[in-house]
């Protein structure tokens, strides 16, 4: 672009190189941060009974709506239940809902996406249904499904899985279509391999990375949607604590007990931020061109 | 072009058809008798039978679907069971605040995201870029209802600058009052979408900036502002427009959630009340209307693509 002396060029090159290293390091650091947050949250979820200082269902009328203190780290709610313990158990339920949703939509979405990408007849049917489902905003679809199925944790997972399966199916299909055209697939086909072998042994492993990235985002989205759902009183039913329904109860006391809102919010944001950072990092590693 | 149009219309009608079947099926997922569930266990068998009869639940499924879709096409979405009014009237009267919020939020989203995305693309790899990335990362990690709760605590409870509950139309008061009621919900709604659109704009702009014609424009000595906003942004616009089209329906449903924080009488309150009373016709109606808005907007945007980029009309022909 510009003419420069060799020395200046070298200096520039060195500078560019340093910047690249720094950037790489930084982006890796963010992935590490995301990973650490996610692992910590997972540990909190797994060891909730050990970490919680009180029984999350234990009512203590004398100490209702008390501010955060040594006894109650995050204060208490309108029934005197310990918010810290409820948030810990809420994290557990939110993580379980997110993980199960991600796992179910991963498995079913991949199957549907592979079918759609490989079998032309199925393509139109599956993709049209996915398109129609995509027209319904996730929260609305989840509300409709949960209200039809009945409110329970299992049904929230089921509803959210139905909401997110089309996303996975779409990503899988797009990758399958491009892999299908590759020469090595043609070679295997010409050797007379069975379709199931081609699909599961040769195509599936090569489409996994974009799908896994998408799945981490779905993990995060499922946690957000569950929180919103429970916040509307249409998700995880009381008295089970989920981050969303703690906030739902906190809404009525937002003027005098801000701690009821602040702490569960903080945990929700942390979980989602961790997963998003992790997902971004994975995407950059798998597809360096995207950034 | 006509061919492209026909193709889009055909696929839109297909999507609508499948959508209607999906929404219709939701009520039939109910384990057991929907009428019994709607009325609760206290109701007598006669009441349940009567409700099943009025909802047409005793007819064969195909007939129920045809009746429902036939009425829906004439603008009749049935009778709300909890409010005793027609579903479409209830939705219409609640739609005002929700649409207002969504439109303002959409505007705010665009006003924040486009310049920010272009700016980040221009400064790619620099500190400013990282700052924008950090902002968008935080933005996509804070759900709108959560942000609205935190804003209520900050501006409503602590600082007491703004009203945190209720809604005033421009007609019933003045613009300033109207804005003071909706500014917090609009900001909460717009933040996540702005963050996503910023990312989209940045990525799309970076793709375009690497093209040869941008280098040519640079070599011609055009001003950077002209290059970025006139030459580059126009070409980066297609994925950006897609995102904008998809966000509007999300904003509408998001507005419904945020409304419940601010006690705004819109679709959100209608949904919450319908869910707690298991008013299935109402829930079906709301889902149908909002999805319909989504499909119509995306149809319009698809047509728009052709205007921005006429190549789309031609490639559609060859397919």
Task: Describe the protein in words.
The complex is a heterodimer of chains A (291) and B (319). With 291 residues, chain A is an all-alpha fold. Chain A has a single domain (2-290), classed as MetI-like fold (Orthogonal Bundle). Chain A is built from 10 helices and no strands. Chain A has helices at residues 6-46, 48-51, 83-118, 120-134, 138-149, 153-180, 183-190, 195-231, 243-250, 259-286. In chain A, helix 8 (195-231) packs antiparallel against helix 10 and helix 9 (243-250) runs antiparallel to helix 10 (259-286). The radius of gyration of chain A is 24 Å and the shape is flat. Chain B is mainly α and 319 residues long. Chain B is built from 13 helices and no strands. Chain B has helices at residues 2-28, 34-39, 45-55, 61-73, 87-122, 127-141, 144-158, 175-209, 212-219, 224-262, 267-276, 280-308, 311-318. The longest helix of chain B has 39 residues, at 224-262. Classes of the chains: A mainly alpha (291), B mainly alpha (319). Chains A and B meet through helix 1, helix 4, helix 5, helix 8 and helix 10 of A and helix 1, helix 6, helix 7, helix 10 and helix 11 of B.
Write the topology of this structure:
The complex is a heterodimer of chains A (291) and B (319).
Chain A: H1 6-46, H2 48-51, H3 83-118, H4 120-134, H5 138-149, H6 153-180, H7 183-190, H8 195-231, H9 243-250, H10 259-286
Helix pairs in contact in A: 1-3, 1-10, 3-4, 3-6, 3-8, 3-10, 4-6, 5-6, 5-8, 6-8, 8-9, 8-10, 9-10
Chain B: H1 2-28, H2 34-39, H3 45-55, H4 61-73, H5 87-122, H6 127-141, H7 144-158, H8 175-209, H9 212-219, H10 224-262, H11 267-276, H12 280-308, H13 311-318
């Amino acid at each position: 672009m510009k003419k420069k002396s060799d020395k200046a060029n070298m200096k520039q090159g060195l500078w560019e190189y340093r910047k690249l290293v720094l950037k790489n390091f930084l982006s890796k650091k963010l992935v590490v941060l995301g990973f650490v947050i996610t692992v910590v949250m997972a540990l909190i979820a797994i060891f909730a009974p050990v970490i919680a200082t009180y029984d999350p269902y234990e009512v203590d009328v004398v100490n209702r709506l008390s501010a955060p203190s040594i006894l109650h780290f995050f204060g208490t709610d309108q029934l005197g239940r310990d918010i810290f313990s409820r948030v810990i158990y809420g994290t557990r339920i939110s993580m379980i809902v997110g993980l199960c949703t991600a796992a179910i939509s991963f498995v079913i979405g991949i199957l549907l996406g592979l079918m759609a990408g490989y079998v032309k007849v199925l393509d139109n049917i599956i993709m049209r249904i996915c398109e129609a489902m995509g027209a319904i905003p996730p929260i609305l679809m989840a509300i409709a499904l949960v209200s039809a199925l009945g409110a329970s944790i299992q049904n929230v997972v089921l509803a959210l899985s139905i909401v997110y399966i089309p996303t996975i199916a779409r990503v899988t299909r797009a990758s399958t279509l491009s892999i299908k055209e590759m020469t090595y697939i043609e070679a295997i086909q010409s050797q007379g391999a069975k379709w199931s072998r081609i699909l599961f042994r040769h195509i599936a492993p090569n489409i996994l990375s974009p799908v896994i990235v998408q799945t981490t985002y779905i993990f995060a989205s499922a946690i957000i949607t569950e929180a919103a759902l429970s916040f509307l009183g249409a998700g995880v039913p009381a008295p089970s604590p989920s981050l969303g329904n703690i906030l739902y109860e906190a809404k009525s006391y937002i003027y005098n007990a801000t701690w009821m809102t602040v702490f569960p919010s903080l945990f929700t944001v942390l979980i989602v931020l961790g997963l998003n950072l992790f997902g971004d990092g994975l995407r950059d590693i798998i597809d360096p061109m995207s950034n | 072009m006509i061919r492209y149009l026909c193709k889009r219309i055909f696929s839109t009608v297909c999507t609508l058809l499948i959508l209607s079947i999906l929404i219709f099926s939701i009520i039939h997922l109910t384990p057991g008798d929907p009428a019994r569930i709607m009325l609760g266990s206290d109701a007598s068998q006669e009441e349940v039978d009567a409700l099943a009869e009025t909802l047409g639940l005793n007819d064969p499924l195909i007939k129920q679907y045809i009746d429902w879709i036939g009425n829906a096409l004439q603008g009749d979405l049935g009778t709300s069971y909890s409010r005793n009014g027609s579903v479409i009237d209830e939705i219409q009267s609640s739609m005002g605040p929700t649409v207002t919020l969504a439109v303002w939020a959409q505007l705010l989203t665009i006003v924040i995201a486009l310049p920010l995305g272009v700016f980040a693309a221009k400064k790619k790899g620099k500190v400013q870029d990282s700052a924008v990335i950090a902002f968008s990362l935080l933005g996509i990690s804070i759900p709108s209802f959560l942000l609205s709760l935190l804003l209520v605590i900050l501006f409503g409870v602590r600082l007491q600058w703004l009203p945190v509950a209720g809604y005033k139309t421009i007609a019933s008061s003045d613009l300033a009052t109207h804005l003071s009621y909706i500014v917090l919900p609009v900001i909460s709604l717009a933040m996540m979408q702005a963050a996503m659109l910023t990312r989209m704009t940045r990525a799309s702009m970076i793709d375009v900036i690497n093209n040869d014609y941008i280098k040519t424009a640079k070599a011609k000595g055009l001003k950077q502002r002209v290059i970025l906003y006139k030459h580059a942004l126009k070409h980066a616009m297609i994925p950006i427009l897609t995102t904008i089209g998809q966000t509007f329906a999300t904003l509408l449903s998001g507005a419904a959630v945020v409304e419940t924080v601010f006690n705004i009488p819109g679709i959100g309150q209608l949904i919450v009340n319908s869910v707690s009373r298991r008013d299935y016709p109402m829930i079906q109606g709301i889902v149908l209307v909002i999805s319909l808005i989504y499909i119509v907007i995306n149809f319009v945007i698809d047509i728009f693509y052709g205007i921005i980029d006429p190549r789309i009309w031609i490639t559609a022909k060859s397919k």
